[in-house]
Design brief:
This protein has 477 residues and is an alpha/beta fold. It contains 20 helices and ten strands. The strands form two sheets. It has an eight-stranded mixed β-sheet, sandwiched between helices. Strands 8-9 form a two-stranded antiparallel sheet. Bound molecules: nicotinamide 8-bromo-adenine dinucleotide phosphate (NBP). Nicotinamide 8-bromo-adenine dinucleotide phosphate binds next to helix 1, helix 4, strand 6 and helix 6.
Length: 477
């Protein structure tokens, strides 16, 4: 029997759809799943009549493959990946390739790459974005590992990826964990985008009193302009769904946001590397505070906020919200790209940030028109340290800032939480401030902990005995 081009383990939504996508591009695939009944179900249902071979043991799977064997793992991240690697190893030979296409933590990918390199087995950790529809129709694919390993599968991944203007949204990102790192940042940026859109909705609904129909129409209109993106498009769709109760379905959805951890990982990486990614982290915390629904409901009964209503012009505020959304989004992307730049330094990856923005133009959740602008920015200046310094983004944000500030002021005065808009504005203001009050922080650290400080007028490390000996006593009554 002719051997298959590829193997895939993990027949949940992502794995099944990826197999169907690969097979549609005329590659034969052998499949396996921990619960083996799923293999037979798949063969009799979605995979019926297709060039897909079901296998019931790891040995059978490996045996069904052309050498060097190329096996995709599309299983739950964490221990299942390590378990399958260990189960595969006894059957693999030097030069065979394992590709982890799940949402693995990049440091696990670095560890696994080293482990498998000792055994001469090639390893790729790849981010696959676009959810189940992307997996089936064409995802965005971020591959990390040995360049030689990438070359073995490059034609397959380029074909099954989303295509934008004839260019595949698939690329070699860098060695070991680079692909999974970039996927993690994609997800962090996705958290930021989703949070900012939800804040725009909150202001439009709670301050401007807009109903679902008007909201849907507004997001659909915004999707025709600079904000054009998958997330704005699906937001417009969401407002058109009416529930059996007669209410817009979105209003019947419980306001507790869940998370699977990639936004948290991106924020943790920002903290580890000392890169300010406050809007991304704020988006994670916003989900955390949404999740304590019971406490919030209790607090809402006892803690009072402002009662005023918005007195200004509706169209003006709506335009301001649109501008604020675009400016805050730019700041959130600026944070994500700065994080990738620093990670490249820390982990010795050569990340082509312009190319990364291009593979996010199709297939993935953050696909958007404006990603093209990010690529242009890195073409203009490959060593750009922050997107806000690019002439295009600088001008857009400078022009939007008055309206953006107005949105934050209105929200603050009316007691409407807008953590994403606010943190992005604070990031913008901090980034463009030459002298921050960190001098006082340093003085305090030196006062209580002798942590020393540097001066603005001369080189060196200084320590001062700051304590005032004859400080007047202050009565606390
Ligand atoms: P899941 O993340 O739910 O994983 C399901 C697969 O993992 C099944 O094959 C299951 O086998 C296997 N598995 C589990 Br669960 N525990 C296992 C264990 N202890 N040992 C061995 N196998 C185990 O499926 P998914 O949503 O299709 O996602 C697959 C990967 O793709 C994940 O890493 C996910 O984070 C990533 N991803 C998902 C999306 C998405 O939109 N869903 C998007 C992008 C990336 P079983 O059938 O025997 O239970």
């Amino acid at each position: 029997m002719r051997k298959c081009d590829l193997g895939l383990i993990g027949l949940a939504v992502m794995g099944k759809n990826l197999v169907l996508n690969i097979e549609r591009h005329r590659y034969s695939v052998a499949v396996f799943n921990r619960t083996v009944e799923r293999v037979d179900e798949f063969l009799t249902e979605e995979a019926r009549g297709k060039n897909i071979v079901g296998t019931h043991t790891i040995e059978e799977l490996v045996d069904a493959l052309e050498t060097p064997r190329k096996i995709i793992l599309m299983v739950k991240a964490g221990k299942p990946v390590d378990d399958f690697i260990d189960k595969l190893l006894p059957y693999l030979k030097g030069g065979d390739l394992i590709i982890d296409a799940g949402n693995s933590f990049f440091k696990d990918t670095i560890r696994r790459s080293r482990y498998l390199a000792e055994k001469s087995v090639l390893y790729i950790g790849t981010g696959v974005s676009g959810g189940e529809e992307g997996a089936l129709k064409g995802p965005s694919i971020m591959l990390g590992g040995q360049l030689g390993a990438y070359k073995l599968v490059e034609p397959i991944f380029s074909r099954i990826a989303a295509q934008v203007d004839g260019v595949p949204c698939s690329a070699y990102i860098g060695s070991d964990g680079a692909g999974h790192y970039v996927k993690m940042i994609h997800n962090g940026i996705e958290y930021g985008d989703i949070q900012l859109i939800s804040e725009a909705y909150s202001l439009m609904r709670n301050v401007l009193g807009m109903g679902a129909k008007e909201l849907g129409g507004t997001f659909a209109r915004w999707n025709q302009g600079k904000l054009n993106s998958y997330l704005i498009e699906i937001t417009a769709d969401i407002f058109t769904k009416i529930d059996a109760t007669g209410n817009p379905l979105v209003e019947m959805v419980l306001d507790e946001a869940a998370q699977k951890g990639t936004g948290k990982w991106a924020s943790q990486s920002a903290l580890d590397l000392g890169v300010p990614a406050s809007t991304i982290a704020e988006a994670v915390f916003a989900r955390c505070i949404s999740a304590i629904k019971g406490e919030r409901v209790g607090a809402a009964k006892v803690i009072k906020g402002p009662h005023e209503k918005y007195q200004g012009n509706k169209e003006d505020l709506l335009e301001a919200i649109k501008q604020a959304l675009y400016a805050a989004k730019i700041c959130s992307y600026a944070q994500g790209f700065s994080l990738m730049r620093e990670a490249a330094r820390e982990y010795s990856w050569h990340l082509d940030l312009g190319r990364i923005s291009m593979i996010w133009r199709g297939g993935c959740i953050i696909r958007a028109k404006f990603l093209h602008k990010i690529n242009e920015a890195f073409q203009r200046e490959p060593n750009l340290s922050n997107l806000l310094l690019d002439p295009y983004f600088k001008e857009v944000v400078e022009k939007a800032q008055d309206k953006w500030r107005k949105v934050v002021i209105v929200a603050t005065e009316l007691g409407i939480p807008v953590p994403g808009f606010t943190s992005a504005l604070t990031y913008f203001d901090s980034y463009r401030t030459a002298r921050l009050p960190a001098n006082l922080i340093q003085a305090q650290r030196d006062y209580f902990g002798a942590h020393t400080y540097r001066r603005i007028d001369k080189e060196g490390i200084f320590h001062t005995e700051w304590m005032v000996k004859d400080r007047p006593e202050i009565r606390m009554d």
